[in-house]
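ingest -> fold -> write
write: protein_1
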Amino acid sequence: MKRRHLAPVRTSRHDRSPSRAVLAAALVGALLSATAACGVGGAEGSTAAEGQPKRTGKISGEITFRTLQLKPMFTTYVQGVIDAFGKKYPDVKVTWEDVPGDGYNEKLVADAQAGGLPDVVNLNTDSFQLLGDRGMLADVAQLDPQVAKEYVPGAWEQYKLPGKGAGVYAYPWYVTPEILTYNKELFAAAGLDVNKPPATVEQFFDQAERIAAASGSRYTAFMADPKGRLPGDWQKMGVPILDKKKSAFAFDTPKAVEWVQRMKKLYAMGAMPKESLTKADDLAQLYGAGKLVFGPGSPGVLKDVRRNSPSAYAKTQVAGAVTGTLGHIGIYTQSLGVRKDTRHPDAAAEFAKWVTNGPNQVAFAKQVTIYPSNAKGLADPYFADRGDGKDPETMARAIGAEELKSARLDANTPVEWTTQVGDAVVREMQKGIKGEETPETAVKNAQAAANKILAQQQKRQ
């Protein structure tokens, strides 16, 4: 699964339409390529394009802080964090700006061209990739050598970049893991033990087959959603996404072919809504209507189920994510990057670290269903409380927090798997699942398309 979802943010690489994502990526890539060679900004006190900012020992100056679609719902929280920072560091002035999700990457590009990137900027997966690949973000592991231990490993390691060694190019902010939710009544109706949910992708497919056979077309097992399922399912099945040098995609393997074969059979059996193969249906709505056995994979969506479908919520059981033999789970993240040529690296680094510290992340998580990337924050008793063990949302919070403590980088989508790569792979998977080409051909063509895009990306760097 991919790095995504976080309740405060209403757009992501999963919930945007593919055509919009491709157009945005193409525009951003072209514009950033034009600016990358000469660096960004040229402001007084900036570093060379290939250099990194250095601490001066003086935490002062005026910095800008940009967030993604947090106003007005979280204005009080964010402003409170800023005000508290100002009391601790009175020589720093923080100017906060919040922008909508639509066109976010394009705005970053325009600001980069004009030398106006914020000092501290909220990054989603795509914007981190675009700015990081082109050398526009500070290496926070170098800027803040002791800070790595403050974050859970899976979140910290998420912000490394190919070919950049041990560098980490953003502070992890709020995160959320995968979980498994299912309608225990429909699950039992298929003859399955409600206390033995699937632990591997193969088991998930086995159980979906039994559900499809028992449902009589009254409901389905799960959403097809290949854009959301890959490359996570493959990782869980032990499929290598990249070669050992991380220079090319290498997922054309018997296991990947097996995945397409199983999906093809399940699709034909009616184990998934037919339309979910090519478009994003409202999962919470279908699950709430009792038309789907496996429900939201994110704790945050359970709020919608509870509010809109109390009867479905009452039938919901929560378990740890399907992981596979290697223990892979997906974690979805947002981060704070520091502009590499910031005039005030000390102030920018301290502020980003302040926003992402344990107490501030816990306070945020109590307002919305997200989790701290900060290890001390995740250890807060709030995340261990399972209540009476019956409330799905409470259980989801505790199960998700436990998973996050051990989630590792290999559970996450490689940064090479960009939106453009994902879309190219999905097009071939759709053909294979619908029977328009053989599973073997679908995987082979998908890898060829992905490597063509990767080669183009590497040429631009």
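write: protein_2
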Amino acid sequence: MGKKSAGRPLTPLELEIMKVLWDAGPATVLSVQNHLPIAPKLAYTTVQTMLNVLHSKGKVKRRLKGRAYEYAPLVSREMAVRTTLRDVMARFFGGSAESLVLSLVESRDLKPEKLAELMRLVERSEAAAKEGERGNA
């Protein structure tokens, strides 16, 4: 299950569990179960199974603390976002970030002020890349 599953996006339940670990830090199964915002409350064994799945996928690490395992994220929130965006771009937009952004603009999910902010970021990035090229020449 190594590298291939490590690059896959999180399932909805995996994401909820990872949010608990990102926000609360290392936690036992019981602690994760108590912090999950899911109703009705998930069974202890369900949370334990999901944490074991995340461990086998390389998304969390665990260490024995007393009689219980304590789980901690190995994947940052930012990395999980990047992985999910790459998956969405590949499956829905042929791998094109431009098509994704155009879809957001056309559906009006990307407001004009945010679009202007993105344009400034792109311009800054291009300027920095040109500076880097001049510095390497």
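write: annotation protein_2
DSSP finds seven helices and three strands in the chain.
Helices lie at 2-6, 12-24, 29-35, 44-56, 77-93, 97-106, 112-136.
pipeline exit 0
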